[in-house]
Design a protein that fits this description.
Strand order of the largest sheet: 14-15-16-13-12-18-19
Structural class: alpha/beta
CATH superfamily of the largest domain: Aldehyde Dehydrogenase, Chain A, domain 1
CATH topology of the largest domain: Aldehyde Dehydrogenase, Chain A, domain 1
Largest sheet: 7 strands, mixed
CATH architecture of the largest domain: 3-Layer(aba) Sandwich
């Protein structure tokens, strides 16, 4: 467990002492991959190669799915009393919360500052604890019948659940899918992002140590076109849960249809607005919140507020304050506890964002730009733009970086029209001291979650207990809370005839 007093030198020692075992984890143990191809996992800050990781193909996928199926049918987990599953998940949660290794891996692989990675480990641990608490609360339903029959709806686990997780929160977001899938009694095959797979392999070793039986939680590494596609097309995978880009989500829907019509849960892209009315009060504190809304984790968050909408009457007072915060920002070394802004996850992400800015519409004007340390090739300074043109690519497309485009609005109707004016519908934030205003907008905004006066970090207080369903091209399916757990089950009707 961390003391909270570690220095950059301390974290460098932790990172230097990591054992980077890149073998797939199948049926309770690391195994040699059956593929002879691999890819490099890089240090996000230095771009040095950390290790080579197998690009698992069909043979490895078949082995992992077979292990998951065998464990499910044997009932070692699926028929274990839910309260016992909960005990194991709690032990695992304790290990995640105390893991310096997971936090260091997160900083190394995708550049998250260690000051952010440590709280993220606690949030990830909480996801496991929440699932453990809910494990024995999936209630069957007794329906009205007749004197000669009993009708029931019974919750059953889906079976073998494949999970494809992203790189931006390699532990936390993966566990938002793993934890409910396991709590509901399923067996899991996880494919983490090729950018940051090492944490999930570490998670698998932790799960086995906590008592998850062999075959119940398997991790195979690989790229989307090989491993991900093979999982999505697999005829013995009952359900696929995915968090990532909308384009990949669309492909996975095709693969599900081409195979066995497996159930899907998709959380895809976002273009989330933060909407500011002129009655907010302390605009200095507000400027801090707005800045954090699009720079947290270097903007590499699906709910990042890459659009900022400000009431026209407040605009000229607020924008200079927000611009000053952007200009004062500076990226740094991820393993330094003083760093609050790390690099982008890899060269491809950095190049993509630079190319996006180079091709930006002339109607989008740069207001402010932060600074980089100049020490790492993937560093990208925060940017603040302004425009009245809502058709610009910077306004319409998910950018996944530390930038926001600011625009004016004159009344609630215009604010709603602009906010809803993209193909996404993941999240939104409303800043107003008038609860009636926030409540009215919440009913009109097309978003899976709307927060009032709160920065949409990945796990704001209270959200961990709620169920969120994205809309439009941000995906579909329930995530979080009791209904999110139920997503990983199916309903079976049972009719007992007694005549």
């Amino acid at each position: 467990m961390t003391s909270g007093t570690e220095t950059a030198t301390d974290w460098a020692e932790v990172a230097g002492g990591l054992t980077l075992d890149s073998r797939p984890f199948v049926d309770g143990a690391p195994v040699d991959a059956r593929t002879d191809t691999s890819f490099a996992v890089e240090n996000a800050f230095t771009t040095e190669v950390l290790t080579e990781v197998p690009d698992c193909a069909e043979a490895d996928v078949n082995r992992a799915v077979a292990a998951a199926r065998a464990s499910f049918e044997a009932g070692v987990w699926s028929r274990m009393p839910p309260v016992e599953r909960g005990k194991i998940l709690r032990r695992w949660a304790d290990m995640v919360a105390a893991s310096k290794e997971l936090a260091a891996l997160q900083s190394l692989q995708m550049g998250m500052p260690i000051s952010v990675a440590l709280p993220d480990m606690q949030a990830a641990s909480d996801v496991l604890r929440d699932a453990a608490e809910l494990a024995d609360q999936l209630n069957d339903v007794l329906l009205p019948g007749s004197p000669s029959a009993i009708l029931m709806e019974i919750r059953r686990p889906q079976g073998v659940v494949a999970i494809i997780s992203p790189w931006n929160f390699p532990t936390g977001v993966a566990l938002t899918m793993i934890a409910p899938a396991l709590a509901a009694g399923n067996s899991v095959v996880l494919k983490p992002s090729e950018i940051a797979p090492l944490e999930c392999l570490h998670l698998a070793r932790q799960a086995a140590e906590a008592g998850v039986p062999p075959g119940v939680f398997n991790v195979i590494t690989g790229t989307g076109p090989t491993t991900g596609k093979a999982l999505a097309l697999h005829m013995d995978v009952d359900m696929l849960s995915f968090t990532g880009s909308t384009a990949t989500g669309q492909l996975l829907m095709q693969y599900a249809g081409q195979s066995n019509l497996k159930a899907l849960v998709l959380e895809c892209g976002g273009k989330s607005p933060q909407i500011v009315f002129d009655d907010v009060g302390d605009i200095e504190t507000l400027a801090d919140a707005l800045y954090e809304g699009f720079t947290f984790n270097s903007g590499q968050v699906c709910t990042s507020s890459s659009r900022t909408l400000v009431a026209a009457s407040l605009y000229d007072r607020l924008v200079p304050l927000l611009a000053a915060r952007v200009e004062a920002a500076r990226t740094g070394r991820p393993l330094d506890p003083a760093t609050t802004l790390g690099p982008l996850a890899n060269r491809a992400q950095a190049d993509r964002l630079r190319n996006t800015l180079a091709a930006a519409d002339p109607a989008v004007h740069l207001i402010a730009r932060g600074q980089t340390s100049g020490l790492g090739p993937n560093e990208f300074a925060p940017h603040l733009f302004e425009t009245a043109d809502q058709s610009s690519r910077l306004v319409q497309d998910e950018v996944f970086g530390p930038l926001s485009v600011i625009s004016r609005f004159h009344d609630e109707d215009e604010a709603v029209r602009i906010a809803n004016g993209t193909r996404y519908g993941l999240s939104a934030i409303v800043y107003s001291s008038d609860m009636a205003v926030s409540h009215r907008l919440m009913s009109r905004l097309k978003a899976g979650v709307v927060l009032a006066n709160r920065v949409a970090k990945p796990k704001p207080p209270g959200l961990r207990y709620a169920t969120v369903e994205p809309v439009k091209m941000s995906g579909f399916g329930a995530h979080g809370g009791p209904r999110g757990l139920a997503t990983y089950t199916r309903v079976q009707a049972a009719i007992f005839n007694m005549e």
